Amino acid sequence: MVALVLAACVSAAEAAAASPAAPLTPPPPQPKWETVATAGLTLTKGNSDTLLANFGVNSARKWKQNEVALGSSFSYGENAGRKNVDSLSGFGQYNRLVSDKFYGGFKLNAAKDAIADLAYRVSLSPLAGYYLIKEAKTHLSLELGPSYVIERLGGVSKSYAGLRAGERLEHKFNDRAKMWQAADITTQVDRFSKYLITFELGVDSAITSQISLRAVLQDNYDSIPATARKMNDIRLVTGIAYKF
Question: 25-64 burial, b for 16+ CB within 10 Å, e for fewer?
């Protein structure tokens, strides 16, 4: 009896070994960081003597329920040997999706602009957001939340609580061309005449899978600037972008 049981076990083992193994389903690909570095340079000599250089890096990653975006940019310019552009800015944002379209998060902005007499400005902004459009080629989101601003403007240091509202649109025309637009306003809660507005409109056209041409229009508006400075700063930046 024992011999029969052993023989049956051996036969079953041989049959299992002979049968082909079931194919394994590969795990889904993990989301990757998408990083883009941009650079632009304008140089003239002769009747005019100018220099304008722009550099920037942006990186983003999206998981199933988390989104992270980071970025920084630097601009420097001279006209006839006199500095007329000198700015540095950066941001970081984290979103946690609570549904397919609703999310909560936090945004950090930092900037300096020597020409506008802004030594530094840092804003910390918890936020609630919603995707009005969330499709394969088009994203449109709105954000709202409190903000806390720390700055040194015109040699005067101060901090204040604010209310921030933001909007961002991204659209891909095809695999080679895309555009984006973003607007942001922060108002001081106890002084509504004091507010900051940033606006950006950009287009990107790919030359290869990694290199593209890019043009970005930027507008920074400060309703109460430093003494002898203008409220509005508009800049058109063109250059080459490299995707990692």
Answer: eeeeeeeeeeebebebeeeeeeeeeebbbbbbbbbeeeee
